[in-house]
Amino acid sequence: MININKNGEAIIIGLVGRVDSNNAEDVRQEIWDVLEQEKYNSIVIDMEELEYISSAGLRVILKLIKRGTDTKAINVSSEVYEILEMTGFTELLSVEKAFKKMNLDGCKAIGKGAKGTVYRYDAETVIKVYNDPDSLPDIKNERKMARIAFVLGIPTAISYDIVKVGDCYGSVFELLDAKSYSEKIAEEPENIEQYAKGFANLLKEIHSTDVDADVLFNEKKLVYKWLSETEQYFPEEVFNKLKKLVDETPNRATMIHGDYHTNNLMVQNGETLLIDMDTLAYGHPVFELANVYAGLVGLPSVDPINQEEFLGYPVEDMGKVWETFFPAYLGTDDKAKLDEVQKKVELIGDLRCLRHLARRIKSNNNYAEAVKYFSKRIAELIEEVSELDFK
Questions:
Q1: Edge-to-edge strand order for the sheet containing 179-180?
Q2: Final residue in a domain of this structure, among 149, 174, 199
Q3: Which of 113, 169, 196, 308 is surrounded by the fewest CB atoms within 10 Å?
Q4: At 95, phi and psi to the nearest 5?
């Protein structure tokens, strides 16, 4: 019927089975006996094992709320949540729904990133499982970012549920028979040009969308982080020039996806949908293009095995994607223009690669030569680039 424990300054009240007119007064009395004896700052009502609560049980919760102590309900089943919502209790206290438990044993991983892995659960469903067991705030943020992009007209897959997978959390998406661009490129190398142009067109759409800079993260802050983590690899003069270029890059209110690669574009019934929205930001497109360059050209040139494992298709095809993507994005075949902009993109892209490899070198010294290569390449490019802005 009831389990009561204390966790730090919180009283945990576990309701079990049914709480109705037959036992509500006994439940209230047992709770009150504990509350009168203990010191506490908050009350947590754990409803994981609660099957049903009647109006008599709800009156017990109402009396708890009226004590004036911070009170919330957790692990609320869909059935009990419906009762709380219908009676207005979801407006009286914080209510956290229980998360369905999913087993992904045998499910195919169709994409992997720094924060998590995307699995194909069945023909209709994919689940992104976050690596960090404490990722619930990140998942909620990603759902928020996806809604922002969707409302602004970006074709975005929106998670319709949050689940538990082992000790971790996952976001559930309905993507009927969808495949990523990476899978499509691996299966249809003869159609690389088609997918590269689609890859470019969606990014142009994203970059033509203005966003509220007060709501989203400034991508330039991330580039400053790359600089701070790689400063040791540059002569002071080179570092200062590089930082000055970043400082002087205009702060546009342009939407930035933040993790734009072919794993994060899904094809469903001929429609392209964008996933992994937790990195949604704003800023200058040069920073996003730099990320794309790093993934398709920079890292494959020095770390082909890991990059092939990450994207799932051959390094030579990554180069082909870039060769079609870049002029399609800029909307020109003018070699002089392409060379001019690519040097700017490559400069920041090489910084992105350097930061990535500098982190790996701590555990694997085999990356030492690659780190030297990128730091030398950046020092050369800095002499040819006077600004990062481009039209």
A1: 179-180, 265-268, 271-274
A2: 174
A3: 308
A4: -125, 120
Residue 390 tokens, joined:
């481009």
Tell me which H or E stretch contains 375.
helix 368-381
Q: Are residues 80 and 114 in the same domain?
A: no
Give me the domain span that covers residue 120.
Answer: 108-174
> Is 361 in contact with 371 (CB distance < 8 Å)?
yes
pTM of the model: 0.79
Q: Could you list the pLDDT tens digit for every one of the 391 residues in the chain?
A: 688 877 788 889 999 999 999 999 998 998 898 888 888 888 899 998 999 999 999 999 998 888 878 889 999 988 898 898 899 888 888 888 888 888 999 998 877 777 888 898 988 888 999 998 888 888 888 889 999 999 999 999 888 888 889 889 999 988 877 889 999 999 999 999 999 999 999 999 999 999 999 999 999 999 999 999 999 999 999 999 999 999 999 999 999 999 999 999 999 888 899 988 989 999 999 999 999 999 999 999 999 999 999 999 999 999 999 999 999 999 999 999 999 999 999 999 999 999 999 988 877 778 899 999 999 999 999 999 999 999 8
- Say if residue 207 is in the same domain as residue 345: yes
Residues 46, 12 contacting (CB under 8 angstroms):
yes
Residue 36 sits in the same domain as residue 132 = no
Structure tokens, 303: 């770390």
Task: Verify that 77 and 133 share a domain, yes or no.
Answer: no
Domain identity same for 277 and 163: no
* Shared domain check, 276 and 253: yes
Length of the chain: 391
